[in-house]
Amino acid sequence: MAFNLKEFAIGCGLHDPEGFVAGVDKLYELVIETNKTMNLTRIVEPEEFRIKHVADSLAIAREFPEFASEYLKVADIGCGAGFPSLVLAMAFPNLKVTPIDSTGKKAAFVDHTAQALGLRNVNVVNGRSCELNRRSRFKHQFDVVTARAVAPAPVIYGDADNFPKRKTGRFILYKTPEQAAEDLPALEIMCAKLPIKWHVTETFSLPENAGKRLFLYSGEA
Ligand SMILES: C[S@@+](CC[C@H](N)C(=O)[O-])C[C@H]1O[C@@H](n2cnc3c(N)ncnc32)[C@H](O)[C@@H]1O
Question: One GO term of the cellular component aspect (predicted)?
Answer without folding.
Answer: cytosol
